Amino acid sequence: MRDARVVWLATPRQRERGGQRNERERERERERETGKERKNGVLDAGRGAPAASQASRAPPRQTGPPSGAAAGPAGRFAANRRPVSPGKTTICSAASGPSAAASAAATKKASAAWANALWDQQQREEAILEALVARRSSIAGCRDRREKAQLRAFSLGQELQEAATGHPERMASLSEAVAIASEGLEVVLAMASGDAAKGHGLTQRLGVEASRLAELQQQLAELQARELAEGTGRRGLVRRSQELQAVAEAAQSAQDERAGLLAQNGLLARRLNNEILGLKGNFRVFCRLRPQRPRSDEESKETLKVDMQEDRQGLTVFAAPQRNVTGMSEHTSSWDFEFDHVFRPNAPQAIVFEEIALLVQSALDGYRVAIFAYGQTGSGKTHTMGGSGLDAKEDEHAGMIPRSVDLIFREVEQLQQTGWSFEVHASMAEVYNEAVLDLLASRQHSQNSASSTSDSSSTEASFAMSSERERSEAKFVSGDPQLGFRRVPVKDASAVHALLRRAHRERHVAATTANERSSRSHVVFQLSLIGRCEVPGQQREVSGLLSFVDLAGSERLHSTGASGERLKEAQHINRSLGALGDVIEAIGRKSSCRGSASALAVHVPYRNSRLTMLLRDSLGGDSKTLFFVNVSPLLEHLGETLSSLRFASKVHACCASAQRHVLVADGDTAHAPGAR
Ligand SMILES: Nc1ncnc2c1ncn2[C@@H]1O[C@H](COP(=O)(O)OP(=O)(O)OP(=O)(O)O)[C@@H](O)[C@H]1O
C-alpha cells in the first residue's frame, strides 16, 4: 500500500522530466560507445568473429616463426609480422660472411625477441578484447533488460495513475475505511489491553480459586476417605456392639442361670444347714468355763475343781473336800451336768464362734435365733457376747456379737450376688428392775444418717451432745417393749459396731450412776433381717431375727445377804430369770407334744416378765435358741455356779426332751421357715 501510495504521489510532470533525462543519458551513452568503436577500427573487423579469434589463440609462445598461416586477425597479424627463428638466422649469416653473419644473427635474435614480445602483446590485447566483447555483450543485455524494465515501470505507473485517477472515491473510502479500521483496531487493542489487565486479575483470581478448589477437593477427598473409614469403623462398632450385646445377653442368662443355681444351691445348703441344726436341736446349751485371771486377786484364791470328759459334752463339778463330824474321813461332793458343748477355759473366742456360726447364718434364712449368756457375776458373759469392750472387731478377743455382725454382712454381700437384697435393722435395750430402756433411743434424731454411713465418729459426737438427763428421759420404753423398741436401719457392719460402742458407753454411764447396774440388768441386742430374692421364678421374702441376750448375773439371795436396792435388783433378776426358765420349760413341753391337741393347751408365760415379753419373738415355735452358761473358775462361787448350771441343765433337759419329741414326730424334718 505504501509503495503504491509513493508511486501514486509522483506527479506526471516529474515522471515526464525523469523520462526525458533518462532518454538523454541513454543517447549520450550511445554516442560515447560509437566514438570508441571508430577509434578502434582495427578491432571492428574482428568483432563479427569472436569465435575464430578464440580459436587462433591456441598455439603458445614459440621460439621460431609459426609453421603455417593462422586464420582470423591473430593469424593475419602473425602472417605479416612473424617472429624470426635464431637458427635460420645463423644459416643465412654463414652464407654472406662472418661479420655480416654475426650481425645478421644479432639482428635475427633481436627480431625474434621483438616478435615474441609483439606476440605476447598481441595475446594480451586479444584477451582484453575478448573480455571487452564479453563485457559489451553483457552491457547490451543489461541495457535491454533495463529498457524493458523502464518500459514496464512506465506502463505500470501509467496504469497506477489511471487507477488512481479513475477511483479516487474508492481510494478515499478505502482510506477512510482503513482509518476507521485503524481506529477500531486501536479501540480493540485498548480493549484487549484492558481485557488483558482484567484477564490478568481474573487469571490471578482464577489461580487462587483453582488452588482453593484443589484444596477443597483434597479436603473433600479426605473427608470422604474418613467417612468411608468411619463408616467402616461404625459398621464395625455396630457389629461389635451387637456381638457384645449378644455376649452380654448370653452372660446375663448364664448369670441368671448361675444365680438361680446358686440360689437353689444356697437354699439347699441352708436347708441342709438347718436340718443339721435341727438334728442338733433348736434348743442348745453350751457351757463355757472362764479361765482364772492372771495378775489379779484371783491368783490367790482357790479354784473350782471341774472334771471334763473327753468322750462326752459334760462336766463334773467338785466341791471342796469336807471332813465328817468325827474328822476321820473326808467327803467330796460332785455334780454332773450334761450340755450340748463344753468349752474349756482356754477355748478362744474364734473356736466358740465356729460352733454358733451356722446358727447365726440361719437368721438370714428367716429364722428367729436367740443366743443367751447366763451365769453369775464375773463368770464371763459379757466377754463371751461382746469381747473386750464390744468393739474388738478385729481382736482375737472379739465376742460373739461383733463376729456375728461381720458374718451377717459378709453373707448379705454374697447373697446379693445371687439375687438377694437385705434390710438390716439394729436395736438395743436394757431390762433393769423390770423396766426397759432403749439404748439407741436418745440419738434417734441422728440415727438415720448415722446408720446409713460408717462414719462412726460423727454419730458419736452427736450422741455426746445430748445430755444425760435427755438420754435417761428418752430411753424408757413403756407398754409393749417390742412396740416401743426402735429399730435402726444399718447398712454395714461398721455402722453396727459404732452403735455397739455407743450403747456400751451408755450402759457404762448408767452403771456408774446405778452402782454396777451393768451386772444387775439384762441387755438385749437384736438384728432384724428382711431379705428379698429377685431371681425370676424364685422370688420370695424372708424375715429373720438375731438376738443376743447378756443376762444379769444370777444371785442366791439367802447366801449373798443382799438388802435394800441390791435385794430389790436381785429379786427382779431372779424373777425375770425364773420367768425365762418357765417360758423355756413351757416351750419344751409344747415342743414335746407337737402335733397333738395338748400342744395347744400348753401356755407359754411370756408376759410374766418384761424380759420374756421382749424376747417373745425370739423364743418358741420355729426359733432356735442357744444358751451359754458361763462358769466362774473360783471355788468361792461354787454355790452360784451350781445354781447357774442347774438352771442351764434344766433348759437343756427341756430342749433335749423337746428335740426327742420333734425327731419322733417329724422324723428327720427340720422346720425351715425360709424353705416354706
Ligand atoms: N474366756 C475368757 N478368757 C479370758 N478372760 C475372760 C474370759 N471370760 C471372762 N474373762 C474376764 O473375766 C472378767 C469378767 O468377765 P465379764 O465381765 O465378761 O463377766 P460378766 O459375767 O459379764 O460380769 P457381769 O455380770 O458383772 O457383767 C473380765 O475381765 C473378762 O475379761
Percent range for β-strand residues: 5-15%
Low-confidence stretches: 1-12, 38-95, 443-474, 666-676
* CA-CA gap between termini: 133 Å
Number of strands: 15
Rounded average pLDDT: 73
- Integer tally of domains: 2
Structural class from helices and strands?
alpha/beta
Spatial shape:
rod-shaped
Please outline the major beta sheet.
Answer: 10 strands, mixed
Region (Disordered): 1-95, 447-476
Family: Belongs to the TRAFAC class myosin-kinesin ATPase superfamily. Kinesin family.
Keywords: ATP-binding, Coiled coil, Microtubule, Motor protein, Nucleotide-binding
Domain Kinesin motor: 282-654
Fold and architecture overview:
- With 676 residues, the chain is an alpha/beta fold.
- It has 2 domains: 2-166; 281-675, 3-Layer(aba) Sandwich (Kinesin).
- Helices cover 60% and strands 13% of the residues.
- It has 21 helices and 15 strands.
- It has helices at 2-9, 12-39, 41-46, 50-56, 72-80, 86-96, 98-166, 168-280, 349-362, 381-385, 400-416, 447-451, 456-465, 468-475, 481-484, 493-514, 557-560, 564-592, 597-601, 610-614, 638-666, and strands at 283-289, 305-308, 314-318, 322-323, 330-331, 334-338, 341-343, 368-375, 420-432, 435-438, 476-477, 488-490, 522-533, 540-550, 624-631.
- The strands form 3 sheets. Strands 1, 7, 8, 9, 10, 11, 12, 13, 14 and 15 form a 10-stranded mixed beta sheet that branches. A 3-stranded antiparallel beta sheet has the order 2-3-6, covered by helices on one side.
- Strand 9 (420-432) and strand 10 form a beta hairpin.
- Helix 6 runs antiparallel to helix 7 (98-166).
- It is rod-shaped and about 235 Å long.
- The two termini are 133 Å apart.
- The structure holds adenosine-5'-triphosphate (ATP).
- The site of adenosine-5'-triphosphate has 15 residues, from helix 10.
